[in-house]
Amino acid sequence: xxxxxxxxxxxxxxxxxxxxxxxxxxxxxxxxxxxxxxxxxxxxxxxxxxxxxxxxxxxxxxxxxxxxxxxxxxxxxxxxxxxxxxxxxxxxxxxxxxxxxxxxxxxxxxxxxxxxxxxxxxxxxxxxxxxxxxxxxxxxxxxxxxxxxxxxxxxxxxxxxxxxxxxxxxxxxxxxxxxxxxxxxxxxxxxxxxxxxxxxxxxxxxxxxxxxxxxxxxxxxxxxxxxxxxxxxxxxxxxxxxxxxxxxxxxxxxxxxxxxxxxxxxxxxxxxxxxxxxxxxxxxxxxxxxxxxxxxxxxxxxxxxxxxxxxxxxxxxxxxxxxxxxxxxxxxxxxxxxxxxxxxxxxxxxxxxxxxxxxxxxxxxxxxxxxxxxxxxxxxxxxxxxxxxxxxxxxxxxxxxxxxxxxxxxxxxxxxxxxxxxxxxxxxxxxxxxx
Length: 435
Ligand SMILES: [Ca+2]
Ligand SMILES: [Ca+2]
Ligand SMILES: [Ca+2]
Ligand SMILES: [Ca+2]
Ligand SMILES: [Zn+2]
Prior knowledge:
By secondary structure, the chain is of the alpha+beta class. It has helices spanning 17-34, 63-72, 116-134, 159-168, 174-177, 208-211, 227-231; strands spanning 2-4, 6-7, 10-11, 46-48, 82-86, 93-99, 103-108, 266-268, 283-287, 296-302, 306-313, 322-328, 340-346, 351-359, 369-372, 378-383, 388-395, 409-416, 420-421, 429-434. Bound molecules: calcium ion (4 copies) and zinc ion.
């Protein structure tokens, strides 16, 4: 990784360098976790503090302006599998070419700790795609899923689709063992119980030593979820391999559809009006990925006419202005079907500010297109001194996948102010309509 701290695009403070490194560790953990511990990245860092006029139009930094800096410091051809450049004023791009002969190349600006890991995961995802392409695997899914959408599973955008690609891809080891590969090496490490987690190996972010799990048991806490399965319980987070019920909801991790979220996944039938009080509704549970001390409560019911949702957020100062509710009515992921709603509630005007259909039934290269959604969605937004309550009733519409039948599964994603997520970022929480 090359970090330029002073460019024509601005300056990165010295105090931000550890944050960049921490971001890189998050990206590293993402790839270990979502590839069943098969793809491990190791970085070396080069910080260039001399002023460089390298940031071009649209924030591009082409590899040929970086390469001389690397060569001047003694870096050689074929030494790296990839080069990631971070520089102030830079945009986030992958460059479809090589640097130092065989290294994939991508770049990112410095957008702060909250956003940096995502850009690294995304752009480095393109580099991995490029490695497999060059090795003769053109079907590694493009992480803008308009192309080869058939290879994309049931997932949301961004973090989630990248995790989905990693989990579905079965050729990770080819980079290391294919004689034609110039990228990656097979590395061997001790894994006494052969559960896919190294006993103790600092080259990885996660191993049994640091997780505190057992090296002589594939399921240290005996909850039915293997130690590796615990690491993969979320796309960014592990359940606890030493606690049989991580989220303390009374369901053991191995039997829990969501070991990380203390939420029920059954939404019962109940005839309700928009005015129905919380006491007549079903609380699935309370959780907030961004800060577990301030959980968000989610109530869901249904009747033959409406899907009834209530989102109740705790007091935060300032309260969120916009609450985004994404639904995946057919539970087939954002990138499939004409069934994805995006509703934007404004808590200041107390209105449903915007409602669109994200329609994935469009030809490549588009992921999906947004169409107007002319459904008579009913809404009440109530602000009191301590909480924001959004009541929603979404009418049945089979054309958009909302059948409202017992057994139907639906996904929901709840985002505050466009970036704070109730669940793991960009993932859907999937629930079932029951009698
Ligand atoms: Ca192990
Ligand atoms: Ca376990
Ligand atoms: Ca556990
Ligand atoms: Ca549980
Ligand atoms: Zn991209």
